[in-house]
Write a structure and sequence with these properties.
The protein has a single domain (3-235), classed as Rossmann fold. It has ten helices and ten strands. It has helices at residues 43-50, 72-78, 95-102, 109-122, 124-128, 139-151, 169-185, 197-203, 221-225, 228-235, and strands spanning 3-14, 17-28, 32-36, 55-62, 65-66, 80-83, 157-161, 189-193, 206-211, 214-220. The chain has a six-stranded mixed beta sheet with strand order 6-7-8-3-9-10, with helices on both faces. A four-stranded antiparallel beta sheet has the order 2-1-4-5, with helices on one face. The longest helix is centred in the last third of the chain and has 17 residues, at 169-185.
Length: 237
């Protein structure tokens, strides 16, 4: 697999406070990678830095394109979709209006309509709710809608920030099954930040562990899952 995203010496700042300290990692095309760490370790900051939503230095390249000088909107147009923590759906719009808004940069109406139906195949509950306002959906349904809306961009890379946050375990497992299917069948490369380390490691190819803004461990998902320190700190056994 070729390298899709290459991050070197990434440092990020909130005002005068440095949050990331020289992160280096890469994402292979078609892979699913998880970034693990405690609250405040820098996981969300890493995703924001990739999208140029905060001040950062270092090198971030997507398919050879340097992202540092690009606007967030331009980065999205390159094929990077970001699903932030808290879902971020447009609560007063219907399910279908949210999906249409996800394709706002596209002109191909027939293809957009086809992609909406494909989202309904991935998430059948959304088809049942297509005229319902997003704000009246359950938390799990809103998370599914947020993922589906991001997919309407036809992204090459999807960044997911705590997709399981606040959801019941059964819904979380269903959501991750769908993410695995999207990764395999639609060939979308996925970087997921996740507190549910056990589930993330079950589905991921590779994992990085971040502590206080530094990557302290990396390897295949199996290697990380079998590491004694990771088991004690993140897996609870």
């Amino acid at each position: 697999m070729t390298t899709l995203l290459n991050v070197r010496d990434l440092r990020a700042y909130y005002g005068q406070v440095q949050a990331l300290h020289g992160l280096e990692f890469e994402l292979r095309e078609g892979s699913m990678t998880t970034l693990l760490g405690a609250n405040g370790a820098g996981k969300t900051t890493t995703l924001r830095a990739i999208c140029n939503m905060i001040r950062s230095t270092g090198s971030i390249e997507f398919e050879g394109n340097k992202l540092g000088s690009r606007t967030t909107e331009n980065i999205v147009r390159l094929g990077i979709a970001h699903v932030p923590q808290g879902r971020g759906t447009f609560t007063t719009l219907t399910v279908e209006e949210n999906l249409q808004l996800g394709a706002i940069t596209r002109k191909d109406k027939a293809a957009i309509a086809s992609d909406i139906e494909r989202m309904y195949d991935h998430f059948p509950v959304l088809k049942q709710r297509y005229l319902q306002q997003a704000g009246t959906l359950s938390g799990g349904e809103q998370q599914m809608l947020a993922v589906a809306r991001a997919l309407m961009l036809r992204p090459r890379l999807m960044l997911l920030d705590e997709p399981s946050f606040g959801l019941a375990p059964l819904i979380v497992r269903d959501l991750f099954k769908i993410l695995g299917k999207i990764n395999r069948e639609d060939k979308v490369t996925i970087l997921v930040v996740e507190q549910n380390a056990q589930l993330a490691l079950e589905l991921a190819d590779k994992a990085y562990v971040i502590e206080t803004g530094r990557i302290v461990m990396s390897g295949t998902a199996d290697e990380i899952a079998n590491n004694e320190d990771v088991r004690k700190s993140y897996l609870g056994y």
